[in-house]
């Protein structure tokens, strides 16, 4: 494994796919904006699914991985100077390689593959693994042309009143300030979210008093988040949005014109960490804009 002793850098995974190309383009722009270096990481697993255990590889997996990463570097050099881009190869699976690199990075960037069946398998094996185990924030970038945050493309963040959500607000405010974009803070509530009811009770009608209670609690939560953002950057344009809707659908639908969608991570451990919450999983899978998952 190649190693780079740096603590201020962005890591991006590259495998030659269109999604990875989009990820490199986005990561390079982020690195330039932040004034940090970029590490383009590729991985060639050996042994492969148990094949080759105990035997010497018939090729040099590290060199093959570096050659692959060099293709990604060429894209990054359209934005960055050569001295700012490092090529790294791992003889391991992609998720493990990127998690290892996250130990000394500010951000890990992975590409969101197409929504084909093969793409969904890739999501489960690499993207979710990186999001669950990374030691730093992770950005998931969709395939295709991606807009950047700016005056017409706000940074959006979802909140739920938790400490993890407030940390996501801090990071979202930082990104909005960096890009000169407005910040939109979204809070939602609906029956099964606030009560935990499911099955036959999921369709139960809430009386007006209950709706007022939950709506007021949501407005208070989002107002607290807005105050947090303004305390960090008082000149930041902040808008709050409250919906009576499932949070995952609300975030995906509302973020279509955003430049970045930010969500928090509760930082679960062990097996629970492998099973991302339903909201995070849905947002990563369906959002059409880059999703930044903030570590606790």
UniProtKB/TrEMBL annotation:
A Pfam family annotated for this UniProt entry: Usp
Classification via PANTHER family: STRESS RESPONSE PROTEIN NHAX (PTHR46268), UNIVERSAL STRESS PROTEIN UP12 (PTHR46268:SF6)
Protein family (similarity comment): Belongs to the universal stress protein A family.
Lineage: Bacteria, Bacillati, Actinomycetota, Actinomycetes, Micrococcales
Domain UspA: 8-142, 153-295
Record's protein name: Universal stress protein UspA
Stored InterPro entries: Rossmann-like_a/b/a_fold (IPR014729), Universal_stress_UspA (IPR006015), UspA (IPR006016)
Native source species: Intrasporangium chromatireducens Q5-1
